[in-house]
Design goal:
Distance between the termini: 28 Å
Strand content: 5-15%
Order of helices and strands: HHEHE
Strand order of the largest sheet: 1-2
Number of strands: 2
Helix content: 25-40%
Length: 66
């Protein structure tokens, strides 16, 4: 899964080619967790703000129980 938020990604074409999810501050683990939730239509329960940022690129169900 490749997430790119148009509000936080670079505008220049050359920079976009080099952009990865890691450059946006998402860890590989967070990406696996979010992609699994999306694939299986699950509710992801976390207070991690990275998941809130990911929702800007790809909508999924997210809850925080704090």
């Amino acid at each position: 899964m490749y997430l790119l938020d148009t509000n936080h990604g670079p505008k220049a074409k050359q920079k976009r080619r080099k952009m990865t999810a890691a450059n946006l501050g998402f860890s590989d683990h967070d990406l696996w967790i979010a992609s699994t939730a999306i694939q299986h239509n699950l509710i992801l329960v976390s207070a991690d703000r990275d998941f809130q940022r990911m929702q800007e690129a790809s909508a999924f169900q997210l809850e925080s129980w704090l």
